[in-house]
What does this fold into?
Amino acid sequence: MKKIIRAAALTGAVALALAACGSAPEESDSTAGGGDTGGSDFKACMVSDSGGFEDKSFNQSGAEGLDRAKDELGIKEVKVESTAETDFTPNIDSLVQQDCNLIIGVGFLLEDPIQAAAEANPDIEFALIDSAFSDADFNPVTLDNAKPLLFNTQEAAYLAGYVAAGTSTTGTVATFGGIQLPSVSIFMDGFADGVAKYNEDNGADVKVLGWDKEAQTGSFTGDFENQTNGQNLAKGFIDQGADVIMPVAGPVGLGAAAAAQEAGDVAIVGVDADWFETSPDYSSIILTSVMKEIGQAVFDTVKEASEGNFSSDPYVGTLENEGIGIAPFHDFDEKVPAEVKTAVDELKAQIISGDLVVESPSQN
It folds into this structure.
């Protein structure tokens, strides 16, 4: 319950981070112990959330960014995997004891233990993916040794929602989340707005199941681990006519993909990474994906820190700086109408130029 209350309060805190955001990226195996290439004494470390590093989602993307830093920069790395929230603090403590120079937490749920560790260890640098920091009253705070890595995902999700609406043959699409956190609902906000824009442009009436942006209420499985929950929720949407579904739930989303594949005429919009590449068993049903370039953000943060240029200024990924985006249509390329592709390109350009502002209560 504490995390849910904190999530609601931090929506406002995270929204203030953009005012202090840092520059965009210039361009992103293992268990505890990592690897030493011998090229540097700098040790970058990472702790996953409960989804683990093989979640085919944001944990995996973060790990890939750290692996790239080890390979290209010659730094040492240590990765520790969490299987439950109770692992977070002990895992972070273990990294502190291993003399890590930089410790990166993957996911909103690590905000409390990462902040506590940063406050207790001012000589160690920290970074946190998908959350800013706050005080006991949920007011935003800046820690000199801790950097938020944030993403205005609603911009890319808006484009995916437009594509979903323009590709649907039933006139019904759906989205759901794992847990109602700002880093989850921001996807759902953008998706719903993209569908609304398609309806406005085309005099259509495509329905969105699973999320009411105005009320900020919708469908959540309550976890990021149990794929059966995602499968059952997706089946319910399919029974109501949905033929495109965007699950924002880490590995739980693969349960939705299984339901879509079984249905035979339902497509999935992936999140965080390009699911066509990361989930080959379901590649034939992946319409597109809303991507967060977490790996690149991690790589750049490690690079800056290893060169002595660490900054607590938040990084905020946008369409403009290519910190977010939508994946190619792959097998669906011929199924997405040409006019929809053209419209999406125009909308992307308008967002980048600032002529179109896609907003979310959870944005950075």
